[in-house]
Amino acid sequence: QVQVVESGGGLVQPGGSLRLSCRGSGIIFRIYAMGWYRQAPGKQRELVAEITTGGSTNYADSVKGRFTISRDNAKNMIYLQMNSLKPEDTAIYYCNTGGMGASWGQGTQVTVSS
Question: How many other CB atoms sit within 10 Å of the CB of residue 76?
Answer without folding.
Answer: 16
